[in-house]
UniProtKB/TrEMBL annotation, chains A, B:
It comes from Pararcticibacter amylolyticus. This is CinA-like protein. SMART domains: MoCF_biosynth (SM00852). Belongs to the CinA family. The lineage of its organism: Bacteria, Pseudomonadati, Bacteroidota, Sphingobacteriia, Sphingobacteriales. The keyword Coiled coil applies. The keyword tRNA-binding does not apply. Residues 222-249 form a coiled coil.
Length: 415, 415
């Protein structure tokens, strides 16, 4: 069972927006045992859309299309789909009701172009969109299923979860897929590959191992495809155990969740709280944590002490420390954690201070120099990093490494 | 002059990573007058990669390929490219030197698989990668140019800027492209379209108008393609002026930069500073701001007062206010801005408190309720929003709207 995703819209092809929809849809399809064969982004251009639809239908059983359903002239997906299927249009009563509701709720006048949003190709089953004015559309044509949805992420997400996936499950007989993730840190991809080669060479053809390097970590992913989910799971787990026994010291988490979520969940289980003191990461670490619902059980908040003044007023870093060692120093991050623990009354604290770049580097402390401290009630761990990247990469690496250090410390305290 | 981007790697197709590379590359190509016809993501599968290369070469002059160049078994791009071009391999001395340097610098042992990273298809010109072990590769074949780069973003970015773009400019005769962006807020896409229809209908065929809706804003983008850049720019500006005179009250910024960067630049010009007090946005607003180099000229820092306790200790919000009106209230965000201005000594402050969801909603204050205050030394503006989205969308909308409110206030003070 193969799927393809086609995103339509000039905004992706000129790079004005990043296509996050496709990754999200791909993840959902994978969880349900549907392999995504190709993701294609094309512009709002009739002939190219038709060509992409035809090419996708030759490779896949399910074609998911997003974008190009707005009311304006540059949105031509609906018209092009009708041409592709060789059908005309009908006005859909349910879709029109949804459009009217949206406009009534926001007190905006209903324009002609909006009423026309309820016009759909004759062969379509409308997937009702409660969050926007463009309905989702389901088509069955030449033994393929086509789904068209608006490109606005939360409208698309709602449609996929509530309308598309239930229909896809009912329509196709799906083979099982089982993933197992092992997040490693502190070991390079090639060294890792050499270490676990004996296991990799033993894998049967229906179990694949992928290396997903990211910011100094490597995520190993075992994926098994087949019919018997329980049997696949057992097999995958036994290979995963072999891998984990080889690389134990580099094994961070084996949940299929982001690192920060794994840290949050572990701290919540242990009943402990966290405050942060961010300088060069400028809120990124806090955002990483608070993007997860329920993070407030663990995360109390913290200081974005971007300026030196705020390191003093918010975190009680001493004038002397700043003058003698500088803002990017072991002493400063130590005092930042002490200030965070003291002022914010958390069980643990993270402090980060560094030079994210591109400016601000010196011969002593070049761009990429980052000091991290993690502290509990009884212990402070500090570490200096020299990251090789650009601003955003340095920020992300600093945040990720601080979380790895924190997890280690909390585990020691509660192991 | 058309280009296509092909990203290779299972991690995109299972949705484990978002393809940010393609957007970045597309942006760079566009800035240089190269239109991206299609972006394609395929898995590490030989026949499918070959098929994609062939299809892309039938539509485009330049094919940019990222990913699949790691040292591990699942990375097969290089081998597949050699097959596509019908050539063997050679070891490249420069590439080998770069590999050795990287390993020497990090004190890691040089493995056989790493030495093989310097093996390249015979017909390739090596693009030296100073940030990683996989060299970039440039191929000319059947009047098309193919470029292959590693998928690690900062390695790819370096190669594009330093190696690929200069060569592309030298190799192709490029037609000019001019963009003009107008960011609007507070007006729906269809209402906007109706308002500016007279201008849109007047546009010549070589000037396109796109509507890019995002989080309650609509970005209008005029794009002109042709030979004479200066003439295109004048034409585009004259259409843009007509549009801006129609929609003036909704016109936020017309720079081709993100909203927060426009706000930062304006505040820097005015010589004023900013502190923030974030509750439900949890660091997202600070991160949005501090991702930009030089933001420290304006941004001092602030409080992530996620818990109620921290609203009191960090921002002096009174017990009485919290008890009587709750954390999500006009009174609380007012006091948060006062606390931020007072404690952090900035000229302006933003405070945000709301219910991002999915939990925490009540009949009185459902999920999506967000109070924002922006304050200068003489004035506080507050506003209540009711956002319809999911957690991340609510967080983003709150941050974006707070920036629009702030820009308005700073402009009033300095207009």
């Amino acid at each position: 069972m193969l799927a393809e995703i086609i995103t339509i819209g000039d905004e992706i092809l000129i790079g004005q927006i990043v296509d996050t929809n496709s990754a999200w849809i791909a993840q959902k399809l994978n969880e349900n045992g549907i392999r995504v064969k190709q993701i294609t982004s094309v512009s709002d251009e009739r002939s190219h859309i038709l060509e992409s639809l035809k090419a996708a239908s030759q490779r896949a059983d399910l074609i998911i299309i997003t974008g190009g359903l707005g009311p304006t002239k540059d949105d031509i997906t609906k018209k092009t789909l009708a041409d592709y299927f060789g059908v005309g249009f009908r006005s859909d009563a349910d879709a029109l009701e949804d459009v009217k509701k949206i406009f009534a709720a926001s007190n905006r006048p209903l324009l002609d172009v909006n009423i026309r949003q309820a016009d759909v190709p004759e062969n379509c089953t409308v997937l009702r969109n409660k969050n926007g004015t463009a309905p989702g559309m389901w088509f069955e044509y030449n033994s393929r299923v086509y789904v068209s949805m608006p490109g606005v992420p939360f409208e698309m997400m709602y449609l996929v979860e509530e309308e598309v996936l239930p229909r896809v499950k009912a329509h196709f007989r799906l083979s099982a897929i089982v993933h197992y993730n092992i997040l490693t840190a502190g070991i390079g991809e090639s060294f890792l590959a050499e270490a676990i080669a004996p296991v990799e060479n033993d894998l049967p053809p229906y179990i694949k191992l992928a290396y997903l390097p990211k910011l100094g970590q490597v995520r190993l992913r075992l994926s098994a495809y087949g019919e018997n989910e329980e049997k696949l799971r057992q097999e995958v787990e036994s290979y995963a155990e072999r891998i984990r026994s080889i690389i134990q010291e580099y094994d961070v988490v084996h949940d299929d969740k982001p690192l920060e979520k794994a840290v949050l969940d572990y701290m919540q289980q242990m009943g402990v709280t966290l405050a942060v003191a961010e300088s060069c990461t400028g809120g990124y670490l806090s955002h990483l944590i608070t993007q997860h619902p329920g993070s407030s059980e663990v995360f109390l908040g913290g200081a974005i002490s971007y300026s030196n003044d705020l390191k003093k007023t918010m975190l009680n870093v001493s004038d002397e420390t700043l003058a003698r060692f500088g803002a990017v120093s072991e002493e400063t991050v130590r005092e930042m954690t002490a200030g965070a623990l003291g002022n914010y009354h958390s069980d643990y604290a993270i402090a980060i201070s560094g030079i994210a770049g591109p400016g601000g580097g010196t011969p002593d402390k070049p761009v990429g120099t980052v000091w991290v401290a993690v502290a509990g009630r009884n212990k402070v761990e500090t570490r200096k990093f020299m990251f090789p990247g650009r601003r955003q990469q340095n920020i992300e690496r600093a945040a990720v490494n601080s979380l790895i250090m924190l997890l280690k410390l909390v585990r020691e305290d509660h192991g």
